[in-house]
């Protein structure tokens, strides 16, 4: 464990911060807490230092090409290769009830395109037998969709990048042109977030097929967790939420590849729309509104 090098994106707070802490606790030799904002990142490191954990820090804005490239160059120069990358950084709809074009583009840019940049610059320095974890959501399960065409296209065995690109363009165009058909989705709340996370799960399957070097790439839903993203609502604490990502990073068999995991460490079939693993917004709404 002490020889391993791990990176967690968007880890100045929330689930990412807790994953960094758990990796330190488990004795991973070098753990990088990264943040888009240097001050927020350094403050988070200081907080962990006070608790007796000593992660390193590097600036990383996942949707900024130069920032991702700088970090990858730095890692290559200092370590040559790394073992674990947890793509955790993410954002949700500004307004949970509204789907606007600018907000949708921003969400997709960070949640999905951010992982593409990470693939371009950081994946090439991941070691043989390394591990990548893409933090998705229950919002990312295929059962969030009701549109049969997209369900079939995204779950087919020979899924291609163009299938995901077309899916995202179809969604963004319909938002832009105000032609969105809400019957295509299981619910209309936090819709762009759902689309971005569905794309992340689909991308995980493609990346796994392409990566080679016996690297594993899995995606997961960490549970409904009390963080800034959920405005403090949730059924899980941060340390409960870090459990499955850390399990996938350190404990599961290396042979488990390209799968989708639930917060209880069970593997779920991402391609089965009948599983009804979608996010039920009522759960969030009830907690947002507080006791009646
Ligand atoms: N909480 C839940 O119930 C839940 C459920 C399912 C999935 N998830 C997923 O879990 C992951 C972590 O979410 P969370 O609940 O911990 O949210 P959070 O508390 O809002 O933390 C999100 C983190 O991502 C960072 N981030 C956002 N955009 C970034 C960018 N462009 N570059 C680098 N870092 C960026 C944020 O940094 P700043 O402080 O600078 O904004 C923050 O550190 C996300 O992928 C989320 O979608 C969460």
UniProtKB/TrEMBL annotation:
What GO MF annotations does this protein's record show? oxidoreductase activity
Q: Does the keyword Phosphoprotein apply?
A: no
Q: Which domain of life is it from?
A: Eukaryota
* InterPro entries, A to Z: NAD(P)-bd_dom_sf, SDR_fam
Q: Which UniProt keywords apply?
A: NADP, Oxidoreductase
Q: Which family does it belong to?
A: Belongs to the short-chain dehydrogenases/reductases (SDR) family.
Task: Kindly name one Pfam family recorded for this protein.
Answer: adh_short
Q: What is this protein called?
A: Carbonyl reductase
């Amino acid at each position: 464990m002490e020889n391993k090098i791990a990176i967690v994106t968007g880890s100045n707070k929330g689930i990412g911060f807790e994953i960094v802490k758990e990796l330190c606790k488990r004795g991973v030799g070098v753990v990088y807490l990264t943040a888009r904002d240097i001050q927020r990142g350094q403050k988070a490191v200081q907080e962990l230092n006070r608790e007796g954990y000593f992660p390193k820090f590097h600036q990383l804005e996942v949707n900024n090409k130069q920032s991702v490239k700088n970090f990858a160059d730095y890692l290559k120069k200092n370590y040559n290769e790394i073992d674990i990358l947890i793509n955790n950084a993410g954002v949700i709809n500004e307004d949970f009830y509204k789907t606007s074009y600018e907000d949708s583009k921003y969400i997709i840019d960070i949640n999905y395109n951010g992982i593409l940049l990470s693939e371009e610059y950081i994946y090439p320095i991941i070691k043989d037998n390394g591990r990548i974890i893409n933090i998705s959501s229950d919002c990312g399960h295929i059962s969030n969709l009701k549109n049969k065409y997209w369900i079939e296209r995204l779950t087919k065995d020979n899924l291609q990048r163009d299938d995901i690109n077309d899916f995202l363009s179809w969604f963004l165009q319909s938002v832009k042109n105000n032609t969105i058909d809400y019957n295509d989705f299981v619910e209309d709340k936090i819709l762009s977030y759902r689309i971005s996370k569905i794309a992340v799960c689909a991308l995980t399957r493609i990346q796994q097929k392409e990566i080679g070097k016996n690297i594993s790439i899995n995606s997961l839903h960490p549970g409904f967790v009390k963080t800034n993203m959920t405005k403090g609502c949730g059924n899980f604490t941060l340390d409960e939420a870090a459990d499955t990502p850390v399990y996938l990073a350190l404990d599961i068999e290396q042979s488990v590849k390209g799968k989708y995991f639930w917060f209880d460490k069970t593997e779920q079939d991402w391609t089965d729309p009948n599983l009804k693993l979608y996010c039920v917004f009522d759960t969030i709404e009830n907690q947002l509104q507080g006791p009646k």
